[in-house]
Amino acid sequence: MSKKGAIILAGGMSARMGKNKALIEVEGKPLLRHVADKAAKVADEIIVAIGRTDELDRFAKVLPPSAKVLRDAGEGQSPIIGMSTGLEALKSSYTVILPCDTPLVKKEVLEFLFCRASNADAAIPRWPNGRIEPLQSVYRVKTMVRATREALKAGELSPVNAIKRLDKVNYVSTEEIKVIDPELLTFLNVNTPKDLRTVKSIFSKISAMRRSQPDLE
User: Fold this and answer.
1) How far is 113 from 105, CA to CA, in rounded Å?
2) The model's pTM
3) Which segments within the chain are labelled E, that is strand?
4) CA atoms of 190 and 192, how far apart (whole Å)
5) Which of the residues 50, 76, 80, 212 could staple to 54 if both were Cys, CB 3.0 to 4.6 A apart?
6) Over the stretch 146-178, which tens digit does the pLDDT of each residue have?
């Protein structure tokens, strides 16, 4: 597979947290930076899409120099706007889409999804109840650019509306992903203060394990 990209969506209102969750620190660095560091392990280019009124410098200073920060190109509050902003700017053939609030995303899961997207328009995780994870998926950039343009032109602001316009989608069962990520921590979002406490607790346990086992990856 050719060049890989990553788009991190950081333009949400974070209403349930009461402040911009992308910049909330866990284990000494912002949630956004945790996600960017994981993305950098698999992607050749990283774009972070922020809100139209967000300050570029606030985000740029907490990111690796290689990450490019862009304000959402369209108006409104929907992940598809940030997706479109990033997709239009990418040079990669395939890209993973990630929310800024999933600091426990696994590099191995991202690699697996890139592999499953090969020769398809997308690889999208799907839960046993049929629910999908469009914001933690890998897409063929060329076809997803077209799909998001068409959805936005039609006034359809759900990522699902863009996915419906793709010709070949590989849905990946979360049961398959459990082989790589047994607790499915990749999909753990920080939406509420309770979620934040959960994530901090998990990081504390990971840090304790690393201190007791220095060779642990």
Assistant:
1) 12
2) 0.92
3) 4-10, 25-26, 29-30, 45-50, 67-71, 94-99, 122-126, 137-140, 169-173
4) 6
5) 50
6) 999 999 999 999 999 999 999 999 999 999 999
